[in-house]
Amino acid sequence: METINGVTVYEEGEKPVLADGVPSIPKYVISKFGWILQERDGTFCWLAATEADYRSSVGQMMGIKPDSVLLDDCEQIGDFSCIGGCDRDYYYCKLMGRDPHYFCRCSI
pLDDT digits over 43-62, tens only? Predict the structure, then answer.
């Protein structure tokens, strides 16, 4: 794993270490823009991230304005798996995170 401008890029098979009590997300639940982990009244829950959340996290990682972020075809399935295709050779969907936002993005 590596960290780029505060965003962690996970290698295949790596997952973030989370606090005890964080529920998993079933594999049949998909989010285009990833998930945000929140604690409410002492209970952890996952919220679907918005396009604005995604653009903010990716923009921070790339050092560009959020409105300059191009969207790709990656989606997050379940809690930490990525699916989708990337239109550049040798790129594939990778898990990334800027606590508490976890998302998938095309990367080398």
Answer: 999 999 999 999 999 999 99
pLDDT tens for 5-58 read 999 999 988 999 888 889 999 999 999 999 999 999 989 999 999 999 999 999
- Is residue 46 within 8 A of residue 36, CB to CB? The reply is yes
> Comparing C-alpha atoms, which of 35, 92, 91 is closest to residue 83?
92
Please give the Cα distance from 42 to 73 (Å, whole number): 35
Q: Are 77 and 32 in contact (CB under 8 A)?
A: no
The number of residues making up the chain comes to: 108
Separation between Cα atoms, residue 99 and residue 53, nearest integer Å? 12
59 vs 75: CA distance, rounded Å: 17
